[in-house]
Amino acid sequence: MSHPLPEVLLPYTEILDNIDAGVALYDRKGNYLFVNAGLINWRNISRADFMSMNVHDFLGVLDVCVFDLVMEKKRKVTRLQSYRNMREPDGTAQIRIVTGTPIFDEQGDVQYVIVVMQDAREIQNQYERILKTEGITKYDELTRGAEVRERIIADSPAMRELLSIAGNVAGLDSTVLLTGESGSGKEVIAHFIHDRSHRKNGPLVTVNCAAFPENLIEAELFGYEKGAFTGASREGKKGLVEAADGGTLFLDEINSLPLAVQGKFLRTLEEKSVQRIGATKPKKIDFRLIAAGNRNLQEMVKEGSFREDLYYRIQVVPLTIPAVRNRREDIIPLCEYFLEFFCRKYNRRKRFSREVLEELSQYQWPGNVREIRNFAERMVVMTPRDILEISRIPQGFLSQPEETAGWDPGSEAEEPPSVYRGGGKYQAPEELRKRPDPRKTITREQVLEALNKCGNRREDAAAYLGISRRSLQYKIKEYHFSDRCRYEEQAPEEKDE
Q1: Measured between alpha carbons, how far is 37 from 22 in angstroms, rounded to an integer?
Q2: What is d(CA 98, CA 82) in angstroms, rounded to the nearest whole number?
Q3: Which residue has the higher pLDDT, 495 or 313?
Q4: Does the first or last residue of the chain, that is N or C, have fewer Cβ atoms within 10 Å of its Cβ?
Q5: Tell me: the pLDDT tens digits for 228-252?
Q6: What is the pLDDT of residues 163-187, one digit of tens each?
Q7: pTM for the complete prediction?
Q8: Hey, what's the torsion of the CAs at 463, 466, 470, 474, to 10 degrees?
Q9: What contacts 273, CB < 8 A, 6 or more positions away?
Q10: Considering the domain 7-122 in this protein, what is its CATH number?
Q11: CB-based contacts of 15: which residues, under 8 Å, 6+ apart?
């Protein structure tokens, strides 16, 4: 059945057909009353066919129906909409910016809904072309991601200040050292800096130093010549440092770099040359270094597990990424952003209730942005498809690990274990690993023995005992050890009566 076009639109049809956007007019039931040429060309459906259709006929290929949102809220609504074009061979989804506006009758009821659709990618491209033409610099909130570009949420003063500094140093070749807890977004900031540098057209090579065994990391970083060692490739191999030539090298968890490799990397950094294993001479390369660590490098220097000269060489521009609990203005925007992100990915429609958002804003998020992302994905995939509003959080979804529960973020002496990933010199004895609760079973003498063997280094002592640094901290408090004294044969402090 064809639906009549309101007479008021007849004189404006030619004008609307020349707008560089898709325009559709619906009646209160969602029937098409008008579509312009832009929408006809986009969906490859004739105007006559549109006039016999309803907006809900496209629910199988749309992730969000803006018409329904306008009818529900009785106000203008703008959303990002994923449209899967089934006429294309691969059914590729396209992202549109869709704005729906209600038109009311004399009784105040919605009589029509007019919707304007624009291609999000084309708008972004036009924006970048104009900035380039006019010579204007900008902060692009989108970072290059392997899956889908993700925004940097920066509503908090701490994150805005961080991005301002990162943007200012991006155009320079100075080495940047990023510090922050695990999951706080160090790699995202590294992409942010690289994308604003003069090296943005070159490679960004990301290396997680903790991901390689100690006996292999040198070969992976610097490469090797053919026949350099048993098992080496006959053709040799280019190292990851060499692969960053002309671009940026991002060394994540640089605190996990073995001491022997630290010296060779320092020489590479200072001389801007790399020598493959088995090679007789170095090769000149040009790269910018961004390093990141999740341990206190100054403490590692004092312990002798990180070279002092390398530390001062990489700490030219130190940037600390605040933990999520210290930028609470970003928590709700992050939760809503990742919820929408995964709704688009899995073709779902979900939203958080006000009560749930309040609960999320009070949670400590020990896993930082990574935990928020994972939480949002779990809520999208585990909530029944027909439930639109998430009004409760299942038990256990926000349970803090025993090690981080109750951690005081203002304490300088105690740090959550998420900041540290191993790094100790000792392996826990097997009998200790099997204990369900080390805090209740490890004796005072065992703690003293571990601290003495490890030179009073708490990281190593915790690793020796097979517990976390936080658990060791509990035991030190429980047995009343003095923080300022060495632990050899130390007696418990007497308490005031």
Answers
A1: 7
A2: 10
A3: 313
A4: C
A5: 655 556 667 888 999 999 999 999 9
A6: 999 999 999 999 999 998 888 889 9
A7: 0.52
A8: -120
A9: 282, 283, 284, 285
A10: 3.30.450.20
A11: none
